[in-house]
Amino acid sequence: MKIAFFDSKPYDRPSFEKYSTQSGVALKFLEAKLNEDTVDLARGCDGVCVFVNDTVNAAVIDRLEELGISLIALRCAGFNNVDVRHAFGKVHVLRVPAYSPYAVAEHTMALLLTSIRRIHKAYIRTRDFNFSLSGFTGFDLYGKTVGVIGTGRIGRVFMDICRGFGMNVLAYDKYPADDPAIHYVGMDELLEQSDVISLHCPLTEETYHMMDSTAFDKCKKGVVLLNTSRGALVDAEALLSSIKSRKVGAACLDVYEEESDVFFEDNSGHIMEDDVLARLISMPNVIVTSHQAFLTEEALANIAETTIRNIVTFEKEGTCDNELCYRCGRIEDCRNQRPQKCF
Ligand code: NAI
User: Fold this and answer.
1) Which residues have CB under 6 Å of ligand 1?
2) Whose CA is nearest to atom 14 of ligand 1?
């Protein structure tokens, strides 16, 4: 199998080179993101390997099919950037459902602690030998209420971490787990009761802008919003207004709804065109990291191993547990209902 590896970065290569060499998969590393303009770079390959900010829309899928490419191997869990419905019957889509929920959950807590204890500000101050404490008063997490939206792999690890801090944990999930240890409440109650809200559900048509102005209005004054899931869960303009009105006390964002044009690249020498992002970053109570919650050695190794295993399994057996299919309604349950490949 020859795979065109789009949007490759130096930190991807060591782990992917290790596992692809072991299994005889040839990778063609490309720095370009996959989109309608770059799709022809995959000519001559059997599949493409893509990440969160590659564009796999209907036009790209049709062109991949014309090029005789039958496989899209996502090296991530989320697949909101892939038109899975359009891919059905044309190109098989594989993903890495889990690689390290700990990486993302731990980063989420790191952001929360950094924000509420002003570590990001203290770091800059002490480097300038300024040891003043003015403006650094934080608050204890112990005894506070955290609302976790999405209680899957990452949400549950994050809930455990919060329990370790002595927090009261509320949860909302459209498909609640059968777990008496999780205190599920309705979405409105979660918004009204939580001092901290953390998003861990996928981006779908239903969850798009779930944190909009109506949702922020229901929140406690001074709520801390954490988003390490997908940017478009949050209406960024509504967030900005809610920060200006002091309704939102702090926001920690590892993802941003328009991130694909900006994140993962060095834009330090450019004028930032995105006014909302620029304004958010200028706020003293906003921390933005550039979609790095997944970025641990353990996660990178797991991503590479599972992606290559998906490709090899699919080639050998014509099916793969990690294939995505929309046809069964709930995409992720497809293989439970039909063990064979999707088409
Ligand atoms: P998961 O599939 O294990 O859990 C997602 C949970 O969200 C499930 O319990 C599901 O029932 C729930 N859910 C689905 N629709 C919902 C809705 N409308 N309202 C409330 N809950 C809903 O996924 P996992 O592994 O926990 O990942 C969560 C998200 O984290 C992914 O979708 C991805 O977008 C994001 N992610 C971010 C990374 C980063 O580096 N920042 C890395 C990996 C994942």
Assistant:
1) 77-78, 98, 101, 104, 149-155, 172-175, 200-203, 206-207, 228-230, 254-255, 291, 293-294
2) 201
95 included as an active-site residue: no
- pTM for the whole structure: 0.91
Residue 156 annotated in active site: no
Look up 291 and say whether it is catalytic: yes
Residue 326 token pair:
């929309």
The closest-lying atom of ligand 1 relative to the alpha carbon of residue 201 is: 7
Tokens describing residue 142: 């112990």
Structure tokens at 253: 């964002």
DSSP code per residue over 249-261: EEEEES--TTGGG
The distance of Cα 251 from the centroid of its chain, to the nearest Å, equals 16
**Cα(130) to centroid(ligand 1), Å:** 41
* Structure token digits, residue 182: 């999780």
Over residues 49-90, the pLDDT tens digits come to 999 999 999 999 999 999 999 999 999 988 999 999 899 889
Q: Which residues contact 244 (CB under 8 A, 6 or more apart)?
A: none
Q: Could you report the per-residue pLDDT of 224-257, keeping only the tens digit for each?
A: 999 999 999 999 999 999 999 999 999 999 999 9
- Pure H helices in 194-341: 213-218, 236-244, 275-282, 297-317, 334-337
